[in-house]
Amino acid sequence: MAQASVIEAIRSTLDEELAADERMFILGEDVEAGGVFRATDGLAAKYPGRIIDSPLAESSIIGLSIGAAHYGMRPVAEIQFADFIHSGFDQLCSEASRWCYRTKGDAYLPMVVRTPWGGGVHGGQHHSQSIEAYYTHMPGLKVIAPAFPADYRSLLKAAIADPNPVLFLEHKRTYRMVRQELEGAPAESVIGRARVTRRGGDLAIFAYGLMLHESLAAAESLAGEGIECTVVDLLTLLPLDRETILEAAKATGKVLIVHEDTLTGGLGGEIAALIAEHAFEYLDAPIRRVAAPDIPAMPYHHAMESFFMPDAAKIAAAARELAAY
Amino acid sequence: MTAVRPRRVRSQKPIDDLLLSEHQLEEMYSYMLLARRINERSLALNRQGRAPFVIAGVGQEAAQVGAAMSLRKGVDYLAPYYRDLGMNLVLGMSAREAMLNLLGKRDDPNSYGRQMPSHWGNSSRHIVTQSSVVTTQFLHAAGIALGAKMRKDPVVVMTCCGEGSTSKGDFHEALNFAAIHKLPVVFYVENNGYAISERTEKEMPLEHVADRARGYGIQSAVVDGMDAIAVYQNVRPAVDQARRGGGPFLIEAKCYRLWPHSSDDDDSRYRPKKELEEWARKDPLKLFRERVENDGIFPRADLDEIEEKTEAEIREATQWALMQPDPAPEDALGFVYKEA
Lengths: 325, 340
Ligand SMILES: Cc1ncc(C[n+]2csc(CCOP(=O)(O)OP(=O)(O)O)c2C)c(N)n1
Ligand SMILES: [Mg+2]
Description:
The structure holds two protein chains of two kinds.
Chain A: E1 3-5, H1 6-20, E2 24-28, H2 43-46, E3 51-53, H3 58-71, E4 74-78, H4 89-95, H5 99-102, E5 112-117, H6 132-136, E6 142-144, H7 149-161, E7 166-171, E8 179-181, E9 195-198, E10 203-207, H8 210-224, E11 229-233, E12 236-238, H9 242-252, E13 255-262, H10 267-278, E14 288-292, H11 302-308, H12 312-324
Parallel strand pairs in A: 2-3, 2-4, 4-5, 5-7, 6-7, 10-11, 10-13, 13-14
Antiparallel strand pairs in A: 1-8, 6-12, 9-11
Chain B: H1 22-47, H2 61-68, E1 77-79, H3 85-90, H4 95-103, H5 136-151, E2 157-162, H6 169-180, E3 185-191, E4 194-195, E5 198-199, H7 200-203, E6 219-224, H8 228-243, E7 249-254, H9 273-280, H10 284-294, H11 300-322
Parallel strand pairs in B: 1-2, 2-3, 3-7, 6-7
Antiparallel strand pairs in B: 4-5
């Protein structure tokens, strides 16, 4: 089978799922025409009435999906850019996340909200953001951020099958950056499990999305210098796979957490706390974080943009220091 | 509710002009009365320190019962707001359940003690779980209606809020989407004149919420929300029209909040006593009683009997509910996620 990009993996998965389940439909801005990133290209013609252009209103997209899921449909909503999801914050966090909790499971919401996130595309402040930390603070939601096409496929399938609201984050910089065979790729990923993508004894790097690719590139160049890294692809950001995280931390004794999100309040703090709490005695060095600086959002100009974004070189520099500690 | 057994069997045949049969009129009165008496008992329990919080629909019983009686039980959906005890009773909530809810008991089917009282929800009765955040339910209702329309189910969704809550974006987004897709939703606004302390003119520069519908291409109506029969006469056709595919409808019921906002509110800070007295003369229960008595539909004795039965029902329900188990502390855990 031919190799697929991330966007192709998403499109073909949506197609398969629409074919498999009559209850599924897609709701979002410009989705009938294929969407601005072309994730829904060709689907409107193939599934008449089930690819629905929403008005330009994010609270609507999420609130309507809640109602439809409650009714027994399988909505897969698209928020055009993650940066604009916040007017749907109330619907996701005050409503969807606690639908099951507040009814003790009498009602539940099998719904997915897909959205492109992340920077490195000259998108400036409002087309580049990492929004995950707002939502990983909300038990009741599941938050997923894959890196490789095959994981996009298996986790999108899992998200659609899941009876809970899932926020499915798609790193827009990787849409056409990585290609992979979808069949026969590494073990099928499941929600709630991280994956060790590379093994090495000197330190463990934890990352997701675009930063997973940057971390793998850093690990590759460090290997040439004799520094062997374990690289963990977190895949599911909520709930975190504590077991895999703690195992990797214990096995290496040195931990580097990488995210594109700003440092303070980012997911790195939670992972660091988890390791400090449960694997402290295994640590040989202070936990390190490589993250974006604490400024409100990614600046537009490419010089400032690349200053903002962590990359393989910055990751490798931090890893070298950690290895030498 | 447990059956109120009048002395003679009520006719099921609609009375001319009313659209309602004697049997339905009796139900209407019984539900309104039950709602009122539950609210009164709730406040008494609050003052005794047994119920931390009460938010009531006193003054809105006609608006609620008249509207909910237009729905098909077990078929239609209701996404209510916190004052809608009367609607819940019509759709099947018992006095016992209402008391479990008030007391936050373990077996309260609305939220099992996980939400404040009057945050309704009951999947088997098609009552959509509701939070404290006002007007979010308008989009849920439109989403349910979208699902029903896609599946071609003959389902109507009713969703409710107060007039103050129509300032929120979700109100407008829901009307917009429902109108675009001609969804079977009845948006129902209970205009009781106040949003806590803010009078309607602080919420909008219009006299009628219903006038906002025109901006979305939705049909609307204003109805006297103190008159249960008039409410039914206006809401029922809107529900029928929505079911036939005629699209959404906005109905504004003009009513009045006869009590403070909640058990924690002191309305003397902002509400003139005279205004309250004037509206109290239009008490929906009083109006209904006078009307059916004067029209000779029910003799006074029958109405008195309904009162007595209702009292007895609430007394029993309260005593029973007070003895029901509370949630265990660790019941706070669990059901964060639905197991696949
Ligand atoms: C989004 C939101 N903001 C504020 C509140 C606090 N609050 C609860 S009820 C209320 C007033 C609502 O007034 P209205 O919609 O007219 O309904 P009423 O209480 O009069 O029936 C306010 C401000 C809330 N519950 N939700
Ligand atoms: Mg009000």
